[in-house]
Amino acid sequence: MLLSTQSSALENIADVRNMANKTENDSEADVQAVGSESCVYYIKWMDVEGVEYAVVMQNENGPCPLLAVINVLLLRGQIALPRGSTEVSEKKLLQFVADCILRLKPKDIDEAELPNYEQNVSDVLALIPSLPKGLDVNIHFTGVKRFEYTPACALFDILNIPLVHGWIIDQSDQELLKLVDGLSYNRIVEKIVSTNNESENYMLRNFLDSSASQLTTQGISELLSNLNDGEIAVLFRNNHFQTLAKQKDALYVLVTDMGFLSESTVVWETLDCVDGNSTFVNAAFNTSHKSIILANESADYLLALSIQEAEKESMPNRSTHMNEIGLSAEEHDVQREVPQVRALSTQAVRPCKNYNVRLF
Length: 360
Hints:
By secondary structure, the chain is α+β, with helices and mostly antiparallel strands. The protein has helices at 2-17, 28-34, 65-75, 90-103, 114-127, 151-158, 174-179, 185-194, 198-210, 217-226, 289-313, 329-332; strands at 40-48, 51-56, 87-89, 163-164, 232-237, 240-247, 250-254, 268-270, 280-281.
């Protein structure tokens, strides 16, 4: 069994390493499968006390898991881009991730744990081509680091990147906590659809509806207590992956929107409230007059979008979120774009090195 696992891992390693070696004559299907050379991401450079850091900005696909992972690796100094470069191909970014996975193999791993680690590596390498689009994750509402274990979780474990979310039930709501005990997001959606208990149905619907931003005050508090000062993580929220940092007892999300590519005063965005009333800060986590103006403009734009969406939802014959019977597993199953059923180990073997670093 170990020989089979090692063989599978080696095949995946070979496939990933061939990403950067494919020629321009490859078929379109092959190129899409391993990341496109023509699909590029722009690079933003920021200076912090004389040290230059690169940040990869999002393209039309939005803040994908590839982007969040790459920016964590860049900010931790585990990978580097040529100084002064303005863009990087998707294929090159995928190669960076694959190389990091192979380089981070623990040197002192126990022989008994080796088969589990190699199987996790094999599963993760097979996931790499899907990083630009999305990953299969399913949260639990009772802990910021609680996720149903999938190969996606193994990816973050092997890279030693904390994967977190902020959709947490208030500890004072014991009745709701008891109702969702041990249930993941997908299981709760299934329960809403299938249960005949009106009281339970209402409680679950009300929680999902009242926390539609997928961030709660309890979640922010637990993120602050679970992350160390100077630590960088990946935040999963609203089916997107974002680079998250804790600095001086405050939380910040990396701004990767292309509209801010040339704005040196806008690098991070505060994460301190659930209503989106945030503030932009620069690379040193300081605010400026210009960043405040830009934050207000961004808030006005988001408000206009929300009003537009509300008007669309109020149109005749259009089902509304949770207000009608049409709440289905398909409507709420945004966390699982491609369901994966394969049974995995309950915990990946983590790399021995801990990259809990103070960047700035």
